[in-house]
Specification:
CATH topology of one domain: ABC transporter involved in vitamin B12 uptake, BtuC
Strand order of the largest sheet: 1-4
Largest sheet: 2 strands, antiparallel
CATH architecture of one domain: Orthogonal Bundle
Number of helices: 13
CATH superfamily of one domain: ABC transporter involved in vitamin B12 uptake, BtuC
Order of helices and strands: EEHHHHHHHHHHHHHEE
Length: 402
């Protein structure tokens, strides 16, 4: 009979399990707590690094977004809304591709080439067309340019499985140098500064930024419905989950890839058109200003949900404006404001772990009986019966139990 020895089975000190579906309000509370904790830490760093007390730090940060008086508050809030709208529009453009697991890193170039197309229409047709037809032509040219720039890597991905991340990233540089070349050709003095175009401006209703903001809000609603309640949105999700499954149920994966990237390029074209017709009325190699890459963070933080992207885009623009005010008021380099922005984003991303998972700590050690077969090789089972266990009941030759 096997010997029985008593021992302890130690559980891990930390045990991580996946959380069940968390209520929306609870997840929102965790994210808000993370932002508050990040600002507390940043205010302490400001005290030790630049000599600003926490109250002064927070006041300056919020003044960067809401101003210090009624007159500046109005200007700051409109600027906050305008920058949020542009960033949101780019994030909406890359979201369909990301839901499909097509890593489109080329939004920067797609928006820039679209803005160039709008400017080219105005440059070659100024004085020959009225603003109405000119704006329509600008819109068509921008959408077409964005779609072409996005479909090129999509075709290579669909037909030859090219790496879309590198492909779209490299096309950003091609777009930048092409814009630089056109600016050199359009400015005989060699300044490469085109200046503000006198025609091709969107009409203003109430405020210069109002049309821009309304267009982006309508686009956000459209994308939410498209991604969650349309057949195309369903196909995008299936292809993103598994291309084999998509093929098995009859979805043409190549067609979906090209069609989805065409949509992403069209939305980038819309952004380029808005930049030229509603904001800058010109183009430079830095017109997009890195927002094509910032939009990736916006989309990921929102988990590719267009409605939640409104909040994430607002958060990132809020951080950018506040950080800029810190650099101006305290006369420090932009390194410190960038650190502040990075800390807040780190806390926001880090809190997602506590939303998805639960951390358990070891409370006590469990004692168990381990069976030993006498050979030293183990093979026993935990919590096995002892020496006083009853023998098995087996039938005798007559079929009776004993």
């Amino acid at each position: 009979m096997a010997n029985v020895r008593h021992g302890t089975v130690k559980e891990p000190f930390i045990h991580i399990t996946k959380n069940a579906a968390m209520p929306f309000w609870k997840g929102l509370l965790i994210r808000a707590s993370a932002v508050i904790a990040a600002f507390i830490l940043c205010s302490l760093l400001a005290y030790f690094l630049i000599g600003a007390n926490p109250g002064e730090f927070l006041k300056t940060f919020f003044e960067g977004n809401f101003g210090s008086n009624a007159a500046s508050a109005k200007l700051r809030i409109w600027k906050l809304a305008k920058d949020t709208a542009i960033l949101l529009c780019i994030a909406l453009a890359i979201t369909p591709a990301f839901r499909m697991r097509f890593w489109n890193i080329g939004a920067e170039g797609q928006v820039l080439i679209s803005a160039l197309a709008s400017v080219a229409v105005v440059y070659y047709n100024a004085g020959r067309l009225e603003d109405g037809p000119l704006l329509v032509l600008m819109f068509i040219a921008s959408i077409a340019a964005g779609m072409i720039w996005a479909v090129i890597p999509a075709i290579f991905k669909a037909l030859w499985n090219a790496n879309e991340t590198l492909f779209t990233l490299m096309m950003n540089y091609v777009a930048t140098f092409f814009v630089a070349y056109c600016l050199v050709k359009w400015t005989p003095n060699g300044s490469s500064v085109l200046g503000e175009l006198k025609t091709g401006h969107l009409p203003s209703f109430g405020h210069d930024y109002l049309v821009l903001i309304l267009v982006v809000l309508v686009t956000t609603a459209f994308m939410f419905v498209y991604l969650y309640y349309s057949k195309h949105g369903y196909e995008i999700s299936v292809v993103g989950e598994s291309q084999r499954t998509a093929c098995y149920i009859g979805i043409n994966v190549k067609k979906v890839i090209i069609r989805t990237m065409a949509l992403s390029g069209a939305l980038c074209g819309l952004t380029g058109f808005l930049l030229v017709a509603a904001l800058d009325h010109s183009v430079t190699t830095t017109s997009v200003g890195g927002r094509g890459f910032t939009a990736i963070i916006v989309s990921w933080l929102a988990k590719f949900n267009p409605l939640i992207m409104i909040g994430t885009a607002l958060l990132l623009v809020f951080l950018n404006h506040g950080a800029g005010q810190l650099a101006t008021v305290f006369r420090v380099s932009f390194a410190f404001p960038d650190v502040v922005t990075g800390i807040v984003i780190f806390f926001v991303i880090g809190c997602e772990f506590f939303i998805r998972y639960k951390v358990h700590f070891r409370r006590k050690t469990r004692t168990a009986q381990v069976a030993d077969n006498g050979s030293g090789g183990g093979g026993g089972a935990l919590d096995s019966p002892g020496d006083n266990e009853k023998p098995d009941i087996v039938p005798d030759k007559g079929g009776k139990l004993k």
